[in-house]
Design brief:
Elements lengths: L3 E6 L3 H13 L2 E6 L2 H10 L4 E5 L7 H11 L5 E6 L15 E4 L4 H31 L17
Parallel strand pairs: 1-2, 1-3, 3-4, 4-5
Helix pairs in contact: 2-3
């Protein structure tokens, strides 16, 4: 099995090193970034199956910068936000976040959530590609769009 490549972004070095070790033991290949700027650079240079980012780093919006950069990546990685501050009722899905992970958390729970997110995200990508292929094969036409062929004159 090929290790799934993850970009882990957090400005707390102890969290980066601890989670990197835990994820590697569980079969993930992990790159780290300590800032949104570093993460965006790595996203431009590499492909990742998943990006996990802290929300608040050098600025309160740094995590959203990472999320937006990940969503612009050609391979469309799954994106999870790892935060110690999970405001009740806050929904980041409109910003492109696939999962909200609250730290600290149980290691096995984290790995299970990551596995589930990777599977569901890959399923979404496959469905989107199938729909695009279907639309391309049908020439982009939809039922009811067809017009009768013009009559031939003699």
């Amino acid at each position: 099995m090929t290790a799934r490549r993850v970009l882990l972004v957090d400005d707390e070095v102890t969290i980066l090193l601890t989670l990197k070790a835990v994820l590697e033991v569980n079969g993930f290949s992990v790159d780290t970034a300590a800032s949104a700027r570093d993460a965006k650079h790595k996203l431009h240079a590499n492909e990742y199956a998943m990006v996990i980012t802290d929300m608040r780093m050098e600025t309160d919006a740094a995590g959203l910068e990472v999320v937006r950069a990940a969503k612009l990546a050609p391979n469309n990685p799954a994106v999870a936000v790892l935060t110690a501050y999970a405001p009740e009722g806050e929904d980041y899905s409109g910003d492109g976040v696939d999962e909200l992970l609250v730290k600290p958390m149980n290691v096995q729970q984290l790995v299970n959530q990551m596995e589930a997110l990777l599977i569901s995200h890959e399923d979404k990508k496959q469905r989107a590609m199938a729909l695009a292929a279907s639309a391309a094969l049908s020439g982009g036409a939809h039922p009811g769009d067809a017009k009768p062929a013009p009559a031939h004159r003699k």
